[in-house]
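Exercise 7.
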Amino acid sequence: MTLFSNLKKRERNLFCVTAVLIIFWIVQGFVVKPIFTKWKQLDEKISADALKLERNLEMIKRKDAIKSDYEKYASAVKMAGSEEEEMAKFLTEIEALATSSSIRVIDIKPRPAKKVRFYKNYLVELEAEGDINQVSKFIYDIQNSPQLLRVDKLSLGIKGAGTNLLKCRILVSKILIP
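Solution. The predicted structure, written as C-alpha cells, is:
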C-alpha cells in the first residue's frame, strides 16, 4: 500500500477508475464479446436449421405427390432398348413434332450419346425452315414433349431476302438413365 500512500485522494480515485476501466475493457474484449459472438452464430445456425427442417417437413407432406411424379417421369427417362433403338425413337419423335408443326426439316444429324455420371445424354442437331409461327410451335412442342426433350442451342436466321421464312439450327437433347 505504499504506492497508494504517496498519492493524493484525487489521484487514487483516478487510478481506481482507470484500473476498473482497464479491467472492464479486458473482460469485455476477452470474455463478453466472444460469448455474444458465439451466441449469435449459434442463433443463426438454429434459424438456418429450422428453415431446413421446415422445408424437409414440407417435402415429407408432399411425399406421395413426389413419388407419383417420379413414377410418371421415370418411365420417360429409363432406357427401354439399345442405344440405337433409343436414338431411333428420339429421331422419330423429332420428325413427328416437325410434321405436326408443319416445319420442313432440311438436315438432321444424330450425335453420339455422351455418358455423364449416371445417365446418357443423346443429342441431335437439325436444320429446319418455316415461318415464325411454325418454328415457335416446333420449339414449344420439343420443350413440352412427353419424352422430356430439351432445346440446348438455337440459332435463327432469315432464309433469304424478301421472304418470311426462318432458317434455324437447333441442338436437341434427351437424357436417359440406363
